[in-house]
Write a structure and sequence with these properties.
The structure is a homodimer. By secondary structure, chain A is an alpha+beta fold. Helix content of chain A is 23%, strand content 26%. In chain A, the strands form two sheets. In chain A, strands 2, 3, 4, 5, 6, 7, 8, 9 and 10 form a nine-stranded mixed β-sheet that branches. The interface between A and B is large, with 45 and 45 residues. Chain A binds a DNA duplex through helix 4.
Chain lengths: 265, 265
Amino acid sequence: MVVKKGTYTYEYPRPSVTTDCVIFGYDVKAGLSILLVKRGIEPFKDRWALPGGFLQMDETSDECAMRELQEETGLSIYTAETTDADNVDEYRLEAKGISDAKVVTSRRSAFFEQIGCFSDVERDPRGRVISIAYYALVEKGKVEGGDDARLASWFPIDSVPSLAFDHEKILRAALSRLKERIHFKPIGFDLLPEVFTLPQLQALYESILEVHFDRRNFGAKMLKLGILDEVGERPKNAGPRIPVNYRFNKEKYEEMKAKGFRLEF
Amino acid sequence: MVVKKGTYTYEYPRPSVTTDCVIFGYDVKAGLSILLVKRGIEPFKDRWALPGGFLQMDETSDECAMRELQEETGLSIYTAETTDADNVDEYRLEAKGISDAKVVTSRRSAFFEQIGCFSDVERDPRGRVISIAYYALVEKGKVEGGDDARLASWFPIDSVPSLAFDHEKILRAALSRLKERIHFKPIGFDLLPEVFTLPQLQALYESILEVHFDRRNFGAKMLKLGILDEVGERPKNAGPRIPVNYRFNKEKYEEMKAKGFRLEF
DNA sequence: ACAAAAGTGTTAGGCCTACACCCATGA
DNA sequence: TCATGGGTGTAGGCCTAACACTTTTGT
């Protein structure tokens, strides 16, 4: 179906429907960050906003948000299955290479979840527009600025500028959901490079949850879960002392999840 | 704003937007149940469905779902604040009496939360219709059948008939969300009469979570939370041996919640 | 008196938390 | 050699889960 500007007539008024996506990234320097785009047109011209766009008639809201995510991050994505707000509340987007041969990056998936509908009557000055909000966790290193004409930039979560529409409200909801989720799902790994160290992982958790953990306790708990594999390589950014490297073992996690599993902090 | 059938023209096609609400109730005999309405018109005429309706241009999706809930349950409701999918993920609807003098029932609030948007392209045969789904917890005793012309009926959660649209999918999501929430919020009390016994409360938890608890451990844990007040009265359905009665102390709960509080099972 | 349901306490194991010292590296 | 940051183990308290008998009531 092609979106064609034209004349569409209905017996009852209908709202426009958009999706907006809070794209989270993380690195040690900036901490938890989000990807924003600068609006090129009115309303809120030149204000920063969450990436988003209008729902097409032939796509689900999931697909719409994924499309936007793909446009902003430059990642090519294919959908594993459709879920909406189904009980399968986890959504993995596997990257699809332009050609199979070109795909050499190790991990190409992102966590993706619907937050919900934001529908304040006055949230968009253009008229009645409701938005289905999503959040995604991406590996920041793989997404250095969008590749389309729009200006896109990462902002540390504590230095987010004033946002367009009700996007600050959406952001608060996304943060709230992220904090909630990370208690139960090992989604933090989606924000890190495939190989990481325990201190990095701990800093990530501390950045998201805004708390401090004891090094020994954090490490012990993580390793006890049995979902981390030690990796022989060394990280490029060796500190004063070189820490041990780990890799998230998704298979072991899926096994454990099947027989009831809770990850709490 | 009055909804008027007429001619509404837009430059781009727009979906219709509805809300649907999974209304949960509970009693000892039937266990966890939901309120369904029998559709009087096509599509899915004579099939059971979740109560729902179209979003009006002057109301948020929260207000729309509340309006439907009110129509089905006969409860008059006022909104405490608007939340959408905000981080204030809890929503309390306080009943508003026709006149203050008439309000003699003790507890008049219900738990109410948005689940999310369901937007499968083919979910409604009438065309592109997306639905914002909600669930609500009500005291079943106060809602014995809708009072409008539509046929409304309670169904135990394990005897739900085949539903219209994608409502079975929405129901699965609602159950999943309910199970998740009850781990952290004492929302179960919204499903019980104001005065209840520990065995009743335990049966409720067991019905929702589909597990079995040891009586002694369950009681000890509940009482240790300090959010239950012992009450001298007797419940109407006293068993062979008369159990102790309790009342949920919302004030104590709010206090504890403020200083970090987790309710786990 | 018997059946059905409710009340009650203890113990063992696991998990959480708090805490201090040593070692490797780079400056 | 000094500062930085990483690795490591233990002990106490709390929570959890498992477990049986007695009491009350209605039939």
